[in-house]
């Protein structure tokens, strides 16, 4: 048995300069007749555009510190409640540990102790177990199947809640499906990113970056975001639709007002759900778009059903705010034939075990899975290992820029090198078992 001997949390800053929770865990025991010890550290991310049904990120509310965004309460819950409760538990029993953490909280949304406190413990212990056993985290989490390197979805242009610009849609991404390896995919993404900077400068736009490292120019129209990215792909020497495809995260809940989708940032008026579906269908017809995330608002289930019926056999339709990595909601969507892929964010649900269940449920139903960062990140690169371990085939963790973003991409390149000849890059095996012709 590997025993949890200590757990300790502290308040640190995330990539947006806001407080978040960091947890250290130590495990000790005897395996294979030898004493072993492992230490693990987890940094908890934080979102900007969040689903209303996400697990609770506990904040202090004390306006005299960090504008009320401090996390001292969550830290105290780890150090005073969770640490005592988990000490002496079998660290290798992740499901048992996570179940105990959930029971200690006792609420349906982890609102008592905070998902940021609970997730920090859950992940730090997993890290410690991997270190004690002398294996990578992705090996510890793997279910015994092939470990596949995911297609990176680089967020090269930011809008919406992630940037102070005139672009309504939140993320415009490039995915190098034509690469032969993950390392090559990173090179391709970085070259397009730098080419895009040149395109924007040539058009007289600013090249400041948003929360996730993508450029955040004030363009004349949403469609211009597509146009400048396609120009950058060509300028970098790649073929759009073959080497590199486009992915969008509309984050439509952020501009959904009183039953309408209001393009307030661009001054583009408002649309009904049906008109939004027509809007996306027109873009898919014109441009090499393979994936759209949160095309409609989290509560617009009828609209989502229409969107899925219209485009679900052509492209990937990813549920984020609507699913919030919650297995019960994902099951409802599967039953209702809504979307065909799930976005996976550890802090939306709050434990590693529940996250793995959401992935398994999605993949079992033929849904694609996209492992995702948050806009407020730390250098913690656990989601890189999670993507490989679960054969998720896709990961989005921002632009090939900013240390907290590239930490994940760099970890994936390390994993690919460690796997050697056994490494396999997902490439065109993208999304829910299909890709566009």
Describe this structure in words.
With 437 residues, the chain is α/β, with parallel strands linked by helices. The protein has helices at 72-86, 94-105, 115-133, 137-141, 182-202, 222-235, 273-286, 301-311, 327-336, 346-349, 352-364, 382-389, 403-419, and strands at 2-13, 19-31, 34-43, 148-149, 151-152, 154-158, 171-175, 245-249, 256-257, 260-263, 269-271, 289-293, 316-319, 341-344, 368-372, 394-396, 424-425. The strands form four sheets. A nine-stranded mixed β-sheet has the order 5-16-15-14-13-12-8-7-6. Strands 1-2-3 form a three-stranded antiparallel β-sheet. The chain has a three-stranded antiparallel β-sheet with strand order 9-10-11. The mean pLDDT is 94.
A few lines on this structure:
The protein is α/β, with parallel strands linked by helices and 437 residues long.
């Amino acid at each position: 048995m590997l025993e949890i001997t200590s757990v300790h949390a502290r308040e640190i800053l995330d990539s947006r300069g806001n407080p978040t929770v960091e947890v250290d865990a130590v495990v000790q025991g005897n395996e294979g007749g030898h004493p072993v010890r492992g230490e693990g550290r987890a940094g908890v991310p934080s979102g900007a555009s969040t689903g209303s049904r996400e697990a609770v990120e506990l904040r202090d509310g004390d306006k005299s510190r960090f504008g009320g965004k401090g996390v001292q309460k969550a830290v105290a819950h780890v150090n005073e409640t969770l640490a005592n409760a988990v000490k002496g538990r079998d660290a290798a029993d992740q499901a048992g540990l996570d179940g105990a953490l959930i029971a200690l909280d006792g609420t349906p949304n982890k609102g008592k102790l905070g998902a940021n406190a609970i997730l920090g413990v859950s992940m730090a212990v997993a890290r410690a177990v991997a270190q004690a056993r002398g294996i990578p985290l992705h090996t510890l989490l793997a279910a015994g199947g092939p470990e596949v390197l995911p297609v990176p979805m680089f967020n090269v242009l930011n809008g919406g809640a992630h940037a102070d610009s005139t672009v309504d849609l939140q993320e415009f991404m490039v995915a190098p499906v034509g690469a032969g390896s993950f390392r090559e995919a990173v090179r391709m993404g970085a070259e397009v990113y730098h080419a895009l900077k040149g395109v924007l400068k040539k058009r007289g736009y600013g090249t400041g970056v948003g929360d996730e490292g993508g450029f955040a120019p004030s363009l004349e129209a949403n469609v211009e975001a597509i146009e400048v990215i396609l120009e950058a792909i060509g300028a970098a020497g790649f073929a759009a639709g073959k080497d590199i495809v486009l992915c969008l995260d509309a984050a439509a809940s952020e501009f959904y007002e009183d039953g309408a989708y209001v393009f307030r940032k661009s001054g583009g008026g408002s649309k009904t759900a049906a008109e939004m579906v027509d809007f996306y269908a027109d873009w898919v017809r014109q441009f090499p778009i393979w994936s759209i995330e949160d095309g409609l608002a989290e509560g617009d289930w009828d609209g989502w059903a229409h969107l899925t019926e219209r485009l679900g056999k052509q492209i990937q339709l990813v549920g984020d705010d609507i699913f919030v990595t919650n297995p019960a909601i994902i099951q409802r969507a599967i039953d209702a034939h809504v979307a065909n892929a799930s976005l996976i964010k550890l802090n939306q649900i709050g434990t590693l075990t529940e996250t793995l269940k959401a992935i398994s449920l999605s993949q079992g139903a033929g849904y694609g899975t996209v492992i995702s960062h948050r806009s407020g990140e730390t250098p913690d690169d656990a989601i890189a290992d999670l993507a490989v371990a679960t054969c998720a085939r896709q990961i989005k963790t921002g632009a090939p820029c900013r240390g907290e973003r590239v930490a994940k991409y760099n970890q994936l390149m390390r994993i690919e090198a460690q796997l050697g000849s056994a490494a396999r890059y997902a490439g065109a095996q993208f999304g829910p078992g299909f890709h566009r012709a």
